[in-house]
Write a structure and sequence with these properties.
Number of helices of chain B: 4
Number of helices of chain A: 9
Distance between the termini of chain B: 44 Å
Largest sheet of chain A: none
Number of strands of chain B: 11
Radius of gyration of chain A: 17 Å
Strand content of chain B: 25-35%
Shape of chain B: elongated
Structural class of chain A: mainly alpha
Distance between the termini of chain A: 56 Å
Largest sheet of chain B: 4 strands, antiparallel
Oligomer: heterodimer
Order of helices and strands of chain B: HHHHEEEEEEEEEEE
Helix content of chain B: 10-25%
Strand order of the largest sheet of chain B: 1-2-3-4
Chain lengths: 162, 278
């Protein structure tokens, strides 16, 4: 049975959740978005209101994306000589776009990356980011500031190399 | 908004737009939901049994799941093979095999060759890691202690034994007690540096205590420490519980299901020498 309203939410948000997972560094964004929706489906009746669905989805995607390790589908042994991760979603997009931002994001601490993506891609305000990440608003502010400093420096370094 | 923010916003949008759209997302969602429902309705007992199997073995259960014959040490011999991906959310686009929880029978009791009777150590065996307590649990009103030790057998092989003994009472071993040779059985992966065992997971289901949360990690001497993460990527507490010249035993407490766990082993120089995700 398809829960009422759920299909509409899926149609509206599935791609966004995939892209959120991708921007957060997940190697399997499709899988993460799918898992987030399955979990949402199981909790749909207990959410209290439809307004709670999207924050729940975002939080789930962030949590599932939290560890690259968790989502790597290639078992890596002897990391001194790791296999090339040519099949990852990031690598594919990087090859296609030649985008420098991915490399910069990948070098940031995970929390900084999360804050930047939530703020500047999803357009969440600080309270929403705090709720999504389960941290204080003050921490969001400080993390954003540090992230922007890191980003400015990294971009400057990239420019200098060109 | 300053230039930096503007550029970041534009670049993030461009990156996100470069992700190709998904095909068949809704159909895949329905498949997953249906699978979950199917599992749910198999009943609490089976679910618990499956949890135990998966928690203990994560991936290593393929032998059991496929119904292949058990081998010596089957009681504790459910090693996690890092080479077999088992995950609650396998990536269908990669064609990875999905290992669904399937009903498992309790299986035959360990053969006499699999377990050593309680009492004095037989001649020719040397205990190399003395019995160390892993956990306590209660079953049918009887208190038990789960312990691990290693013993060198006359042929030179070092066996890892996980044994349940009563807290008070006559000396006997819990039926789930058994021994196996790390790294050699059942997958024969001697090149690995890390092997794992659930704690007294079979053949009886013991889900009322801490055992289902625990997993024993066995490492070779060139591993200095092991970091274990649960299915959510959170690091779980690990403590060393025994060591001899050839093996070190670590006990990981997942606090819940160990399904989807991963680990990284580090050498003395802090270099990662093996990692796996199940």
């Amino acid at each position: 049975v398809v829960v009422e309203g759920f299909r509409e939410l899926f149609d509206r948000q599935f791609e966004a959740m995939r892209r959120l997972a991708f921007l957060l560094g997940a190697d399997d964004p499709e899988n993460i978005a799918q898992e987030a929706f399955v979990r949402l489906h199981g909790r749909w009746s207990g959410l209290g209101s439809a307004d709670a669905a999207l924050p729940y989805l975002r939080r789930t995607v962030v949590n599932l994306s939290r560890s690259r390790l968790r989502h790597l589908r290639v078992v890596r042994r002897s990391p001194q000589a790791p296999p090339p991760d040519v099949d990852s979603a990031e690598a594919q997009v990087l090859a296609r776009t030649g985008h420098g931002l991915l490399a910069v994001l990948a070098a940031l601490p995970q929390r900084q990356r999360q804050v930047l993506v939530l703020r500047y891609w999803l357009d969440l305000d600080q309270a929403e980011i705090a709720q999504t990440l389960g941290i204080a608003v003050g921490t969001v502010k400080a993390t954003t500031s540090h992230a922007m400093t890191s980003l400015r420096r990294a971009w400057a370094d990239q420019e200098a190399l060109r | 908004m300053n230039d930096l923010e503007q550029r970041l916003r534009e670049d993030l949008s461009a990156l996100a737009d470069a992700v190709p759209p998904s095909t068949g997302g809704w159909a895949e969602h329905r498949r997953r939901v249906t699978d979950r429902h199917r599992q749910k309705w198999r009943g609490p007992a089976l679910a618990a049994a499956v949890t135990t199997v998966l928690a203990g073995a994560a991936v290593g259960g393929p032998l059991l799941l496929r119904g292949e014959p058990t081998a010596p040490g089957s009681g504790t011999g459910i090693p996690v093979s890092p080479t077999i991906p088992v995950t609650p959310m396998p990536p269908p686009q990669q064609g990875a095999p999905e290992v669904s929880p399937v009903p498992t029978s309790p299986g035959p009791p360990p053969s006499p060759a699999d377990t050593r009777p309680p009492g004095p150590m037989p001649t020719g065996m040397n205990v190399t890691v003395t019995p160390t307590e892993l956990a306590r649990f209660t079953e049918d009103g009887v208190g038990w202690i789960a312990r691990a030790h290693t013993e060198q057998r006359p042929d030179g092989a070092e066996w890892l034994c996980i044994v349940g003994v009563p807290v008070d009472g006559p000396e006997r071993e819990h039926p789930n007690s058994s021994c196996s040779v790390p790294f050699d059985w059942p997958h024969g992966q001697p090149q690995h540096l890390v092997d794992t065992r659930p704690v007294l997971a079979e053949p009886r289901l013991i889900d009322s205590g801490p055992l289902v949360r625990l997993m024993l990690f066995v490492t070779k001497p060139n591993v200095d420490r092991v970091v274990v993460r649960d299915g959510s990527g959170d690091e779980v507490p690990v403590r060393e519980v025994g060591r001899d010249a050839t093996l070190t035993l670590y006990l990981a407490d997942f606090g819940g299901s160990s399904q989807g766990f991963g680990y990284t082993a580090y050498d003395g120089a802090g270099r990662a020498v093996e990692s796996a995700i199940t």
